[in-house]
Amino acid sequence: MLIVQKYGGSSVANPERIRRVARRVVDLRRAGNEVVVVVSAMGDTTDDLIELVKRVSSNPSDREMDMILSTGEQVSIALLAMSIQTMGEKVVSLTGPQAGIVTSDTHTKARIEDIKTTRLRQELDAGKIVVVAGFQGVNSHNDITTLGRGGSDTTAVALAAALKADLCEIFTDVDGVYTTDPRMVPEARKLDSVSYDEMLELAHLGAGVLHPRAVECAKIYNIPLHVRCSFNNEPGTIVEEVNRMEKTLVVTGVAHDLNVAKIGIFDLPDRPGIAYRIFKTLADASINVDDIVQSSMRDGTNNISFTVTQSDIRRALTLVEDKIVADVWAGGYTHEPEVAKVSIVGAGMVSNPGVAAIMFEALADENINLDMITTSEIKISCIIKHVDGERAVKALHRKFKLDQEPV
Amino acid sequence: MLIVQKYGGSSVANPERIRRVARRVVDLRRAGNEVVVVVSAMGDTTDDLIELVKRVSSNPSDREMDMILSTGEQVSIALLAMSIQTMGEKVVSLTGPQAGIVTSDTHTKARIEDIKTTRLRQELDAGKIVVVAGFQGVNSHNDITTLGRGGSDTTAVALAAALKADLCEIFTDVDGVYTTDPRMVPEARKLDSVSYDEMLELAHLGAGVLHPRAVECAKIYNIPLHVRCSFNNEPGTIVEEVNRMEKTLVVTGVAHDLNVAKIGIFDLPDRPGIAYRIFKTLADASINVDDIVQSSMRDGTNNISFTVTQSDIRRALTLVEDKIVADVWAGGYTHEPEVAKVSIVGAGMVSNPGVAAIMFEALADENINLDMITTSEIKISCIIKHVDGERAVKALHRKFKLDQEPV
């Protein structure tokens, strides 16, 4: 089998942990598998580098940020390769550029566009374990790019897809995907398997175990993901295409995201192109917009509300104030710098129309007010006050009996 | 003017010093020059990385060492570029591979073979200050190589040569080239200028200010080097082709190297190919041999003695014992793990035959025994007991009146 493994920063946080990872990788190789290992920067390395940057510049260019941050993974891959060498296995470390990971030009948030597998194949064919730096690649200018936080998951899945791997194992410091955040709700239960779509919603909504782009990529190329803990040998959670005919579970998990800010633009003229103008301006500034809700007023005008991460709110507000309001002839805008988003996720929801009502009931029982509601086929999300976030998650987990094994 | 500047590790040891370097670079740019800056890793970074490596492996491969050590300069170039950005100048950082620095394949001791200047020229033409990572390049396998300690000087000079720079400034923590090590001899005097050949001998012999490969490269391409201190604006020492007709100075400086080990191989048959076999075996193991002395015995056999750095002595001895003695039908071998080398250097020596005698007199007066003697046109070196090294340097400095301005 060709297996791609990915180890996060906490799994390689110090030399002892690196040796443990090396041991696991070598065992897998000796069992007759071809192994590609993707690693993140060691523990706090990225944060340490960011601290160093702050002492030099308050506003460094994204290109130079990528230049400095990409060294974190480069250190990890060399150390892991050295550790594997001490166990007598052939191994080679490759930076993102060396591994042929070609990305878009956008620094700090690059997307993988292609993986040129010549070198990877050549090293695997030579019998080597290949250790690849996650989170990074090279753009069309031969500049080093990074994929943004959590990008190492994407590196692993993209490599698995490009190499047609049989399995992609994502090692992390938790032992799988839970019905909700176990730090918040102790009764949270580990799921044996979830579908790509469910995982996608859970990832997007702050479950935090897997980067959503990694899940998207795995879904497109149908790569089974095994999310598991690097500190033990227990099975974790398999993310794969699930046949829902066999399952009766309506709600799989409760997700939350406390890092949400909201902007509302009101008194918009009711004509084509308004939404386009707003979100084109934000997209051009690389601001990721999460939820969007548009509602029509009685007077024929529209309101559009949307959410962004809290770190983007300042830049987004500047654009709204300086450009967007005038561009779209808006009456004005409002914003909430800190709100929370809670969501229930489940592939069975689509055929169970009463689920939304049960969710709203649970929140009403807690006297939690709903600010925005958005729905998809497999999830329902509510934007609520930041302070109500944790209470909402607990109430929903209880209401949908997620602490109990499904029948 | 196109000026290449190089700043060593102590000049960029912390954010404050990086800002000071940025200031100097920006000033040079604003004075109308094109500027390429080569930087080393920050202060102790390389040592810290080596410590980290030791916790993972006692015998890492050279390729992986290069992978990890090259991150040190990558951090420096990004930080310096960011600092220059805060001052409003256009700047781009380039790793060795990005700067087109193509090296031989040998890891940890690669030699620069070519510099593909397309990208460098393009960035300079765009009006940018270009910050290049010293000490590193890329080999024919697209692997990252390092040039070995001191290689950043070589990077700077090679870039100056490839870009046909007008001047190459080497900033360091000392303010120039001295008649001998001022830490050892307080009366040591700073030299205003030295020739390439003198500098080459001084560098080779442990003066430590400039890497000898850098001086060689500067000599070949006739690049004037200005060795100066990064902490002040004083002129340092110019290294350039000097017309000795105008100078009466016979001895320019006294060099020493306390990091020397000696091996003697005796009772060698007097036939062609013996020296070749010995030094081919050592060269294949990438052991740098410094001095070689061969002498013929009365019985028709030869003895060959040579010196290596102390860090190479164990490997060299293993080769001598396991292979070389049998290969060349030698009677046996001896070794001294710690000896010292003292040398007098001066381009005027060639026309002053009495200089050697004065040197030997000074050492005899100190009761210092001579173990090996080697000479070139511009230097005379003696291998002596390690314990006598410092005393010999002081005696020679005094004897040749190097503390006094030349007439």
Describe, in plain words, how this protein is organized in 3D.
Chain A has 407 residues and is α/β, with parallel strands linked by helices. Chain A folds into 2 domains: 2-173, 3-Layer(aba) Sandwich (Carbamate kinase); 254-399, VC0802-like, CATH 3.30.2130.10. Chain A has helices at 15-30, 45-54, 62-86, 118-125, 151-162, 196-207, 212-221, 274-284, 313-327, 355-365, 389-399, and strands spanning 2-7, 34-39, 91-94, 101-103, 112-115, 129-133, 136-138, 144-146, 167-172, 193-194, 225-229, 237-239, 253-268, 289-296, 302-309, 332-345, 372-375, 379-385. Chain A has an 8-stranded mixed sheet with strand order 3-6-2-1-9-11-12-10, sandwiched between helices. A 6-stranded antiparallel sheet of chain A has the order 14-15-13-16-18-17. In chain A, α2 (45-54) runs antiparallel to α3 (62-86), α8 (274-284) runs antiparallel to α9 and α10 crosses α11. Chain A is globular. Chain A binds chain B through residues 15, 18-19, 49, 52-53, 55-61, 63-65, 67-68, 70-71, 74-75, 77-79, 81-83, 85-86, 92-93, 95, 98, 119, 142-144, and chain B through 15, 18-19, 49, 52-53, 55-61, 63-65, 67-68, 70-71, 74-75, 77-79, 81-83, 85-86, 92-93, 95, 98, 119, 142-144.
Strand content of chain A: 25-35%
Tell me the series of helices and strands of chain A, N- to C-terminal. Answer: EHEHHEEEHEEEHEEHHEEEHEEHEHEEH
CATH topology of the largest domain in chain A: Carbamate kinase
Q: Kindly report the oligomeric state of this protein.
A: homodimer
Q: What's the gist of this structure?
A:
Chain A is α/β, with parallel strands linked by helices and 407 residues long.
